[in-house]
Amino acid sequence: MSYISNMPIGVLLSASVLITVLGDFFAKYWSTAPSKTSLYYLAMGCWMLANVFFISSLLKKPLVTMGLMFTLANIVGFTLVGFFVFGESISTVQTIGTCVGFIALVLLGIN
Q1: How many whole angstroms separate alpha carbon 108 and alpha carbon 66?
Q2: pTM of the shown model
Q3: Domain residues for 21?
Q4: Tens digit of pLDDT for each residue in 48-90?
Q5: Domains contained in the chain, number
């Protein structure tokens, strides 16, 4: 565990986000074929592993800071996966809502 705790904050956050988005990918793929329970367990495993990195990041930065950075990066990640991998469309209203939510999270993170 100390090896992970000694990683730079950018590495911890990047690993947490990438592994979470990978879990989101497996979860979405499972939702299209619920009989493939291995995808369900892969998603759960990814999300648990991602939190090992996220929790370690809290040793370096406050929860609010890390939570906002993690959330913003995940919004970008799962939106890109949904759009490019699964061909999900995003309506104008959803795009505006996502942008407003993104701006709100940024504003919440300003000291």
Answers
A1: 12
A2: 0.86
A3: 2-109
A4: 999 999 999 999 988 988 998 898 899 889 989 999 999 999 8
A5: 1
